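Researcher: We plan to redesign the surface later, but first we want a full-length starting point. Tokens attached.
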């Protein structure tokens, strides 16, 4: 996402750049299909991991944007299922629940 940071390069005298601007959360992907892609990639990744390790695999996920917050899953399918929910509520992640 660079439109705000590089607004001075767009040829429009009515826009001003802000080189310090960061999207919230700070790890937002520079892709307009990010919310849908997140779900798709999570499900695809879970399928690959299930092929190698089986579905019943316990693991924790630490959240980059919420320090100290962790999610615990007992299967790849459970994590993939929950990863699909951000499409319904933008700007949330597994850790924010």
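Model: Full-length starting sequence:
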């Amino acid at each position: 996402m660079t439109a705000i940071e590089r607004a001075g390069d767009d040829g429009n005298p009515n826009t001003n750049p802000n080189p310090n601007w960061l999207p919230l959360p700070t790890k937002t992907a520079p892709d307009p299909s990010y919310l849908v892609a997140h779900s798709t990639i999570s499900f695809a990744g879970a399928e690959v991991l299930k092929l190698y390790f089986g579905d019943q695999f316990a693991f924790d996920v630490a959240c980059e944007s919420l320090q100290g917050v962790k999610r615990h899953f007992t299967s790849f399918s459970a994590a993939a299922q929950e990863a699909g929910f951000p499409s319904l509520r933008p700007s949330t992640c597994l850790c924010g629940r």
